[in-house]
């Protein structure tokens, strides 16, 4: 009996059944794909993060206080392999070496590895081959990384001379003795290949040379030794989706290794697990986003199925009432509907899993691989977890969406059969309940309330950060994002009506005879489905918001970074923290550990070398910030401020737009460094103290009773790269405003007068800002500078152009994922559109039959329904797009206001137009397909079946 | 006065039920003159609706010839037939089939919009006049759900007259109404027939409703079995 009912329903309501199954297929497919995308993206993400620090699970080196810097491979490898969880051990020698190719020479990173064993990272060959063996010429092969090849003009076939010195050792608590008495050995290699690397050298750049370990050992007269062992941990051990868990699981293996080898003679480092755990914070946002998309898709599918099943039930009310008269129990009617849903579900979910896998394997994975720029990222093709989660979630959604119709069926009243008038109406009551005739202001009000959540989050957020619980943070971000989107969608729901009117106005202009009909159905709105409209608004709001945000980011990064960075290059000496970090990353490669104080300023000789570099047009030295207090001198007002000294004219080095004075002559900028006792202060501070150019302020200096009187020579709104000079009082209250002085004033302030006058030779330059000479290519100069200064002197070289490029690159990567996500949800939205239009048209068969009988031409009928569909979906889409864009602009503008940055306006050139086109096409085709059979059938045939 | 407006000539019509052809009309011939008011009667399943649909240009005969206002509808395409209905035929059905989102006035206006002959103002004026003619001058802005069954059927009659058709077709117009309201509707149609000379062909089961016709045609098993002039009509006279 039940089987018969289901079969009949399938056969008689083919379109609806197909619709339900298809929407399930697409919904489940989307879920599977999204889940798999989460997996893939996480792997890709940690992959990229890890590649910057080296794709190493665990490295074992000797501390530089050990008497012997080398490790005995033959002894350690078997011991390590015996530890559970250890999958492989690859010995390496890594160092900074001098290389000579023809006439050019320089320092670069050196990696000697066993090519058949070492699985860490990847190389991409640009030129030649990756072959480290001995070739025909008798010289062994070397693979040169691109930047080194560029700087040293190396090409294929060149002979490369590498000079290697074993790592220096030192006594505990002592510096390395400053001597050149090291044993240097030189050997020759032949350049076999040139290319790029990821995660192989443990550096984010492409400097260095790669050779075979055995060859290196032989040529440099070393035994079977290495200066590091890279331990590969069984990936199953930390294949959890919780990055924290993964990293800790990996660390357990690290602990086991340490217990086996001891910690006196070895230093351990786990770059990849550390990158995974560090990167997790940033991944939280993406994860929330993907969850958000998944939820959206589910909502649409659930709603669709509910609507369609409800239509089925509605239509059979009379049949069901007859069954009740015949004595069928309520449970039976409930089961009828449940069985139908189950059959649909079985088919849809099964197919959906297949489709999802196909989309993942054929679209998403290749796309991510493409983003990985040819580096093979280990991406799973079949994700059992993704399938399981998706199937479970879909089952829940299916059950929920079937509940209401099944209950409705179960509660069928006998009067439905006795009084046909009840069941005769063309209106589907249930849909009517979903529909509204007027815009519901309550929805907007609810949106406003929901929007309060993000505000709340701004207060709860810091708390979550304090607790440091990742999942709480993730839940909060997700909640914030969800309520932001849902809230905005609901708030903007009031815009739908004006949007509709606008679209109707257009149709009226284009085709008044179509407009006449469309206007009345749309505006008097029984055909409008509030929930589905809201869904469409939502699914267009999210991509519009994100893509506009990204577009704004791309458009504004350059100005933002130039205004904030101030100059093309910012060079910093190694800070204590910095050198520590770098040591962890490529430890054992030598280099003295410097004390914190000396590290925070430039050594004079390096500074002189940098300033004399012809690659720079101009340089500006600035001191570190000195935390102080500025007073008006009469004890009325005072503020915390950072005092910064400069030693030149900022106008020479800084970008023109990065300097903005409110009052005072621009010449004062040039004179400031030469005139101790003067100061340039921020506009906010000037307002706060109510002091103008020519007035004096007192600044508290080091030591007791130390006050310096400074004359204000200019008031600035912005001097990028030097300090914060905004016109906002809040910056004064928070003590982040800057007082700019001459270097001598800075020396005087930071010197305690009790110990005598300040030492004019004391190195105080903490940051060197530099502008490149006119003929310099900035990116080439960056890598050149890094090669010359970063490796040897451990200077941090910051290039504004590079930062801009990186940020924009990241935004573009984000855009790609956004396109994937949007495409996936759009397919669902299209289904939503189709279902709404189908149900709406189906519900009005009698009217359509009537219109046909009266003599409406088929084309006119089509135009009317296409018009209706377009107005209904486009108004919602446009509302969503507008809301999303406004939201994105609100964020950017408030951010710009906060940081006093101008905003370049931008719209997304891909996602938003694509969404519009998709919606127009889908509503058009939905109307065409949904009315197809009605348009073909004759009036009497339609009217008979109503 | 005696010009032929509808000519049905030995029409056969069968429906396919599975593999079997069920004959609905078996050689029906009928001539309706302009200004006639004709009633089709007969037991259920005798083929009244089928014949009416053919006469109204909603359906084509399987065999035989049908001309409406001198035009052969058998050879006409679907779109031309639609045009013919729009211009020359008005329909009133058992279920009123009004557009639910349209007011009474707009329902009457709709066929005029479709025909695109009148401007906005003229349309409204005409719709108003038609509604006034069916006695609904004070209900123009009501939605169908706000009207009684009889009122809805009046709107349907007004709508059928929108494009000033020559022929009015009604299938059990009064079937869903109580007899008093039914009489009112029939009287309305009869007045239109008398005053404006509209040709009316309608189907009814109710012999009292048949009294309004000039003559009745009786069908049985798809064939015309009798044709009788109505006594009421003869009393009223020509
Ligand atoms: N679409 C159809 N498919 C199959 N058979 C049909 C169809 N429409 C009508 N018939 C058959 O044609 C015959 C005549 O039907 P028709 O609707 O003309 O009868 P009717 O005289 O109007 O009856 P009623 O007074 O009950 O409305 C009937 O036997 C019916 O079964
Ligand atoms: Mg009938």
Helix and strand string of chain B, N-terminal first? EEEHEEHEHHHEHEHEEH
Query: Structural class, judged by helices and strands of chain A?
Result: alpha+beta
Give the class of chain B from helix and strand content and strand pairing.
Answer: alpha/beta
> What is the first-to-last residue Cα distance of chain B?
11 Å
What is the strand tally of chain B? 10
Describe this structure in words.
The complex is a heterodimer of chains A (946) and B (238). By secondary structure, chain A is an alpha+beta fold. Among the domains of chain A are: 167 residues, no CATH class; 229 residues, no CATH class; 139 residues, no CATH class. Helices cover 57% and strands 16% of the residues of chain A. Chain A has 32 helices and 23 strands. In chain A, strands 3-4-9-6-8-7 form a six-stranded mixed beta barrel, surrounded by four helices. Chain A has a six-stranded mixed beta barrel with strand order 15-16-21-18-20-19. In chain A, a hairpin with a 6-residue loop joins strand 15 and strand 16. In chain A, helix 1 packs across helix 2 and helix 1 crosses helix 9. Chain B is of the alpha/beta class and 238 residues long. Chain B has a single domain, classed as Rossmann fold. Helices cover 36% and strands 29% of the residues of chain B. Chain B has eight helices and ten strands. In chain B, the strands form two sheets. Chain B has a six-stranded mixed beta sheet with strand order 6-7-8-3-9-10, with helices on both faces. In chain B, strands 2-1-4-5 form a four-stranded antiparallel beta sheet, covered by helices on one side. Chains A and B meet through helix 17, helix 29 and helix 32 of A and helix 2 and helix 3 of B. Adenosine-5'-triphosphate binds next to strand 1, strand 2 and helix 1 of chain B.
């Amino acid at each position: 009996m039940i089987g018969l009912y289901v079969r009949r329903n399938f056969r008689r309501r083919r379109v609806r059944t197909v619709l339900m199954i298809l929407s399930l297929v697409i919904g489940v497919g989307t879920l599977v794909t999204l889940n798999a995308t989460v997996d893939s993206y996480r792997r890709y993400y940690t992959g990229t993060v890890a590649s910057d620090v080296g794709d190493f699970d665990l490295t074992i080196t000797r501390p530089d206080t050990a008497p012997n810097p080398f490790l005995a491979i033959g002894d350690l490898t078997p011991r390590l392999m015996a530890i559970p969880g250890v999958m492989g051990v690859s010995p390496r020698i890594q160092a900074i070496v001098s290389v000579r190719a023809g006439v050019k020479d320089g320092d670069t990173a050196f990696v000697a590895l066993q090519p058949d064993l070492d699985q860490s990272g990847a190389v991409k060959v640009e030129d030649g081959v990756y072959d480290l063996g001995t070739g025909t010429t008798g010289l062994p092969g070397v693979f040169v990384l691109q930047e080194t090849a560029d700087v040293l003009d190396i090409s294929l076939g060149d002979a490369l001379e590498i000079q290697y010195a074993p790592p220096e050792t030192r006594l505990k608590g002592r510096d390395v003795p400053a001597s050149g008495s090291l044993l240097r050995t030189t050997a020759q290699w032949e350049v076999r290949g040139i290319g790029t690397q990821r995660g192989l050298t443990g550096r984010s750049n492409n400097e260095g040379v790669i050779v075979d370990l055995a060859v290196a050992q032989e040529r440099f007269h070393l035994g079977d030794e290495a200066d590091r062992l890279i331990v590969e941990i069984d990936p199953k051990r930390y294949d959890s989706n919780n990055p924290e868990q993964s990293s800790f699981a990996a660390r357990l293996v690290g602990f086991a290794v340490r217990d086996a080898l001891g910690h006196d003679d070895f230093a351990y480092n786990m770059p990849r697990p550390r990158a995974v755990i560090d990167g997790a914070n940033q991944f939280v946002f993406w994860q929330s986003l993907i969850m958000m998309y998944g939820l959206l898709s589910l909502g649409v599918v659930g709603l669709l199925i509910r609507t369609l099943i409800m239509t089925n039930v509605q239509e059979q009310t009379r049949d069901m009432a007859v069954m009740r008269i015949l004595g069928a129990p309520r449970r039976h009617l409930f089961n009828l509907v449940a069985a139908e849903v189950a059959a649909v579900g079985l088919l849809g979910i099964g197919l959906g899993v297949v489709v999802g896998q196909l989309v993942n394997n054929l679209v998403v994975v290749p796309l991510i691989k493409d983003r990985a720029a040819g580096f093979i990222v280990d991406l799973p093709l079949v994700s059992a977890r993704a399938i399981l989660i998706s199937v479970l979630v879909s089952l829940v959604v299916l059950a929920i969406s079937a509940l209401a119709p099944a209950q409705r069926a179960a509660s069928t009243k006998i009067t439905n059969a006795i009084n046909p008038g009840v069941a005769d109406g063309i209106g589907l009551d249930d849909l009517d309940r979903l529909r509204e005739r007027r815009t519901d202001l309550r929805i907007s009000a609810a949106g406003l309330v929901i929007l309060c959540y993000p505000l709340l989050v701004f207060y709860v957020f810091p708390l979550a950060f304090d607790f440091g619980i990742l999942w709480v943070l993730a839940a909060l971000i997700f909640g914030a994002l969800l309520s932001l989107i849902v809230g905005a969608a609901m708030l903007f729901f009031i815009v739908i009506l004006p949007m509709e009117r606008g679209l109707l106005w257009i149709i009226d202009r284009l085709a008044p005879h179509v407009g006449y009909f469309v206007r009345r159905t749309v505006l008097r709105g029984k055909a409008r489905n509030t929930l589905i409209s809201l869904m469409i608004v939502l699914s267009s709001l999210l991509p519009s918001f994100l893509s506009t945000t990204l577009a704004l980011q791309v458009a504004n990064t350059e100005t933002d970074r130039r205004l904030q960075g101030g100059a093309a290059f910012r060079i910093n000496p190694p800070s204590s923290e910095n050198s520590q970090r770098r040591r962890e990353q490529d430890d054992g490669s030598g280099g003295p550990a410097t004390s914190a104080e000396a590290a925070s300023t430039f050594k004079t000789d390096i500074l002189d070398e940098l300033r004399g570099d012809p690659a720079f047009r101009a340089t500006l030295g600035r001191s570190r910030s000195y935390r102080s207090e500025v007073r008006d001198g009469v004890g009325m007002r005072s503020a915390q401020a950072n005092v910064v000294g400069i030693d030149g004219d900022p106008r020479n080095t800084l970008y023109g737009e990065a300097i903005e004075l409110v009052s005072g002559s621009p010449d004062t900028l040039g004179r400031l460094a030469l005139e101790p006792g003067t100061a340039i202060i921020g506009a906010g501070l000037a307002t706060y103290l109510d002091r103008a150019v020519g007035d004096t302020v007192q600044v508290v200096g080091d030591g007791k009773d130390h006050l310096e009187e400074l004359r204000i020579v200019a008031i600035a709104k912005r001097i990028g790269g030097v300090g914060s000079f905004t016109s906002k009082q809040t910056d004064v209250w928070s003590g982040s405003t800057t007082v700019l002085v001459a270097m001598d004033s800075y020396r005087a302030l930071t010197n305690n007068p009790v110990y005598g006058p300040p030492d004019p030779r004391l190195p105080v330059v903490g940051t060197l800002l530099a502008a490149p000479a006119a003929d310099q290519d900035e990116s080439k100069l960056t890598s050149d500078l890094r090669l010359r200064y970063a490796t040897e002197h451990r200077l941090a070289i910051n290039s504004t152009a590079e930062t801009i490029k990186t940020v924009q690159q990241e935004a573009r990567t984000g855009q790609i994922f956004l396109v994937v996500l949007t495409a996936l949800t759009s397919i669902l939205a299209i289904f939503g559109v189709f279902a709404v239009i189908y149900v709406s048209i189906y519900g009005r068969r009698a009217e359509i039959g009537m219109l046909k009988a009266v003599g409406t031409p088929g084309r006119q009928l089509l135009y009317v329904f296409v018009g209706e569909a377009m107005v209904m979906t486009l108004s919602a889409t446009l509302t969503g797009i507008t809301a999303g864009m406004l939201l994105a602009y609100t964020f950017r503008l408030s951010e710009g206001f906060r940081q006093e940055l101008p905003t370049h306006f931008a719209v997304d050139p891909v996602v938003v137009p694509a969404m519009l086109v998709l919606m127009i096409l889908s509503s058009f085709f939905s109307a065409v397909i949904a009315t197809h059979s009605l348009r073909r059938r004759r009036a009497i045939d339609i009217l008979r079946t109503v | 006065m005696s010009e032929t407006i509808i000519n049905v000539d030995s029409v056969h019509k069968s429906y396919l039920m599975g593999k079997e052809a069920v004959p609905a009309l078996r050689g029906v011939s009928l001539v309706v003159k302009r200004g006639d008011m004709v009633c089709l009667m007969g037991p259920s399943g005798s083929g009244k609706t089928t014949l009416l649909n053919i006469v109204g240009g909603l359906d084509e005969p399987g065999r035989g010839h049908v001309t409406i206002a001198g035009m052969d509808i058998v050879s006409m395409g679907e779109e031309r037939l639609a045009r013919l209905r729009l211009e020359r035929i008005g329909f009133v059905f058992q279920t009123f089939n009004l557009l639910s989102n349209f007011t009474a006035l707009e329902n009457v206006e709709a066929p005029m919009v479709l025909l695109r002959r009148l401007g906005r103002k003229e349309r409204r004026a005409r719709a108003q006049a038609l509604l006034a003619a069916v006695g609904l001058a004070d209900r123009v802005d009501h939605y169908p759900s706000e009207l009684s069954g009889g009122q809805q059927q009046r709107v349907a009659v007004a709508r059928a007259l929108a494009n000033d058709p020559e022929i009015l077709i009604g299938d059990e117009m009064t079937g869903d109404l109580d007899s008093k309201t039914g009489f009112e509707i029939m009287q309305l149609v009869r007045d239109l027939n008398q005053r404006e000379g509209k040709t009316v062909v309608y189907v009814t089961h109710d012999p009292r409703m048949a009294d309004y016709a000039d003559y009745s045609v009786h069908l049985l098993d798809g064939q015309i079995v009798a044709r009788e002039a109505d006594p009421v009509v003869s009393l009223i006279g020509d």
